[in-house]
Specification:
This protein is mainly alpha-helical. It is about 60% helix and about 0% strand.
């Protein structure tokens, strides 16, 4: 269950053209989120280019890189993993 501060208690309605909705719906689908989540994310983080889907892919790549170098350089693997995890705080 979400914390009280994270619970979504507000709802609103907006008007747009069919073409605008089609664009928004497509972008939400590309990011793997609902139209509502897409609109909230776009409004709250307008300059954010790292979508949750992109961040998940980056995390997977970093995890794979860390696994590949863990035997030869465990400290570097740990540093990379730590920095990748910090991406999630943005």
């Amino acid at each position: 269950m979400r914390k009280a501060s994270e619970q979504k208690t507000r709802s609103t309605s907006i008007r747009m053209t069919n073409d605008q909705y089609a664009i928004i719906e497509q972008r939400a689908k590309e990011q793997g989120v609902s139209v509502s989540a897409y609109l909230v994310n776009a409004a709250v983080h307008p300059a954010a280019s790292l979508t949750p889907g992109i961040m998940a892919k980056v995390q997977t790549l970093v995890n794979d890189a860390c696994d590949a170098c863990r035997c030869s350089n465990p400290k570097e693997a740990e540093r990379l993993a730590k920095e990748a995890n910090e991406l999630w705080s943005f």
